[in-house]
């Protein structure tokens, strides 16, 4: 009996210690973010705000999240590293922010992830987040995270508006149906970009059945000159609308210079191309920054693989340029956004496209490197390819009919 009593006391003591440790950790996290102990957060960026696109959009998210946290009484101090390369300088930036006392470090570019993961091993007390990536969701490091949003939904909406503009041009006799060509400037020929331009094309095709697309890859996320040159080449080849998955505004300005129309990414580009740019779509990163930081300060953890879509305002459209948009665009946009948010529209509905003349009946869910996404190897079910369903990062790599790749860039 005495032995049982002693054993029970030891067990109760152990449970008490675990509970006390948990309370201590929560109290420690809660103490951060106060006037006496600000929470330091790092943000490592591939560019700077001068791109008026990708990094600009991240900084917009940072400012909006900061304002919301401040309004709730939290004290957060940011350490931002601009113009970081997808190389050893990324490792250095992650080390520097950790050494400067940052408890959370956000990395904003796809190519940052392998460097971030190496550093994360040496700083287990710091949470490292890789935006637009996938490995952090299933590695063996509890302090690594990844996040993305269903931007393909916003691209589909932009594609619908592009298709409506093309229909207007056809109706007015400016082009014929067989001249309905979209040009797309892509960074690299892998899943994130393929998913984006395919959803854009499907949006355009849903209202303009004769539309075709040509894609030119520039081999860089942020090369203003190459992006402009690609847009000009596409316009010279007959594209009447240019879109992009690249970081700068130069595809918009090149489209305007060529006398064609444009839809953008990351930022409202009507300021630089008011006669060309109809609308843009972007991820509202303030939602993730706020959610992650608030959870951390509450002593909690967000899921290691985070993604939200249009229904939760993580994917948004910029203001419609009504001066050049086709008649009825605002009403159509509202309808399509509502239908996507409700699930009525499945962007990759397999009844809306073919692959080498056949309906897509099966496709592996793969990440950008060709690896299988966690938990599954089949993404086609219930009549659609389910993008960002098994992991937040896109894995759509199917080459569908109607889209011509002019080159490749990995």
What would you call the shape?
Answer: globular
Mean pLDDT: 90
CATH C-level category of the largest domain: Alpha Beta
Annotation, overall tally of beta strands:
15
Rg, rounded, reads 23 Å
Q: CATH homologous superfamily name of the largest domain? A: Response regulator
User: Would you identify the regions where 5 or more consecutive residues have pLDDT less than 50?
Assistant: 1-29
Strand content: 15-25%
**From the helix content, strand content and strand pairing, which structural class follows?**
alpha/beta
Give the helix proportion (percent range).
25-40%
User: Number of DSSP helices?
Assistant: 10
CATH architecture of the largest domain: 3-Layer(aba) Sandwich
Report the span from N to C terminus. 70 Å
SSE string, helix = H, strand = E?
HEHEHEHEEHEHEHEHEEHEEHEEE
Q: Could you say how many structural domains there are in total?
A: 2
Description of the molecule:
It is built from 10 helices and 15 strands. The chain is α/β, with parallel strands linked by helices. The chain folds into 2 domains: 143 residues, Response regulator (Rossmann fold, 3-Layer(aba) Sandwich); 221 residues, Rossmann fold. The protein has a 7-stranded mixed β-sheet, with helices on both faces. A 6-stranded parallel β-sheet has the order 2-1-3-4-5-11, with helices on both faces. Strand 8, helix 8 and strand 9 form a beta-alpha-beta unit.
């Amino acid at each position: 009996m005495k032995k049982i009593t002693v054993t029970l006391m030891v067990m109760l003591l152990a449970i008490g210690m675990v509970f006390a440790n948990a309370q201590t950790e929560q109290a420690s996290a809660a103490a951060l973010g106060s006037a006496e102990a600000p929470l330091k957060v790092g943000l490592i960026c591939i560019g700077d705000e001068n791109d008026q696109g990708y990094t600009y959009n991240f900084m917009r998210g940072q400012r909006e999240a900061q304002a919301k946290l401040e309004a709730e009484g939290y004290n957060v101090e940011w350490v931002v590293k601009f113009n970081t390369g997808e190389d050893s300088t990324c490792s250095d930036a992650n080390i520097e922010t950790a050494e400067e006392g940052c408890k959370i470090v956000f990395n904003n570019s796809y190519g940052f992830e392998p460097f971030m993961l190496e550093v994360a091993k040496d700083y287990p007390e710091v949470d490292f987040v890789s935006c637009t990536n996938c490995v952090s969701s299933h590695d063996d490091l509890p302090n690594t995270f990844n996040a993305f949003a269903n931007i393909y939904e916003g691209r589909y909406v932009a594609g619908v508006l592009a298709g409506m503009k093309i229909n207007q041009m056809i109706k007015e006799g400016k082009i014929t149906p067989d001249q309905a060509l979209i040009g797309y400037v892509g960074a690299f020929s892998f899943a994130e970009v393929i998913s984006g331009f395919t959803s854009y094309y499907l949006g355009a095709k849903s209202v303009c059945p004769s539309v075709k697309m040509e894609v030119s890859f520039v081999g860089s996320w942020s090369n203003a000159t190459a992006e402009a040159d690609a847009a000009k080449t596409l316009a010279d080849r007959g594209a009447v609308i240019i879109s992009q998955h690249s970081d700068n505004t130069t595809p918009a300005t090149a489209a305007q210079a060529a006398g064609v129309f444009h839809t953008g990414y990351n930022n409202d580009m009507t300021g630089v191309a008011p006669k060309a740019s109809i609308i843009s779509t972007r991820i509202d990163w303030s939602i993730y920054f706020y959610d992650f930081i608030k959870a951390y300060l509450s002593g909690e953890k967000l899921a290691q693989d985070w993604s939200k879509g249009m229904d939760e305002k993580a994917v948004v459209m910029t203001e419609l340029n009504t001066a050049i948009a086709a008649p009825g665009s605002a009403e159509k946009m509202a309808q399509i956004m509502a239908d996507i948010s409700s699930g009525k529209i499945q962007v990759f509905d397999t009844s809306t496209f073919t692959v080498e003349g056949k309906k897509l009946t099966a496709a592996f869910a793969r990440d950008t490197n060709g690896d299988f996404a966690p938990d599954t190897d089949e993404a086609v079910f219930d009549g659609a390819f389910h993008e960002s369903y098994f992991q937040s990062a896109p894995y759509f790599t199917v080459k569908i009919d109607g889209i011509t790749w002019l080159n490749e860039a990995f």
